[in-house]
Amino acid sequence: MNDDGKIDKLLRESLRMEQPSIDFTDKIMGQIEAMDTKEEKALSSVLKRNALQSPSLNFTDRVMGQIEKSSIAIVNKPIIGKKAWAFIGICLTLIVVYVLAAPSQETATSLYLDNAMAKYDGMLSFDLPGILSSPLFAISVFALSSLLFLDYFLRNRSLSLKI
């Protein structure tokens, strides 16, 4: 242990804090300021060589005009055209008018079809749920589809006016 105490004492004596000179801080600050002035001179010379130019008076107007020319107008074109919707509407209307105006009395054609279908009556017969055969259901489907068509046409009309 005696040797350890000698080593510790020797280490403590050799590791004394160095005392900087009195003007140490001033010298360091002077070096930092000299580096800053060199950097500022270099930066100012670069900025002088590449000085900012002020744009012309109508610069913004010219740029905005070019942007407006190059921008592509996006037009929402429907998948099904107005003529196709008109054709579909006319067909549905004709079907509804035909069903409503069809004669209730049996004709020769309907008697022939009834006799022909009588052979296959057991094979092809199926019963619809009561709600699907109700006149109220048919009127509701017709009213809903009419409102959807009306909504579609009104939306397309308002979109075409905005563009």
Number of domains: 2
Distance from first to last alpha carbon: 97 Å
Say how many strands there are: 0
* Average pLDDT level: 76
The number of helical segments is 7
Strand content: under 5%
Radius of gyration: 48 Å
Task: Explain how this protein is built.
The protein is mainly α and 163 residues long. The chain has 2 domains: 2-52; 82-162, no CATH class. The protein has helices at 2-14, 24-49, 59-70, 82-101, 108-118, 121-124, 135-162. It is elongated, with a radius of gyration of 48 Å.
Question: Which tags fit this structure?
Answer:
mainly alpha, 2 domains, elongated, 163 residues, 7 helices
Kindly summarize this structure in a few lines.
The chain is mainly α. It is 70% helix and 0% strand.
Blueprint (SSEs and pairs):
Layout: H1 2-14, H2 24-49, H3 59-70, H4 82-101, H5 108-118, H6 121-124, H7 135-162
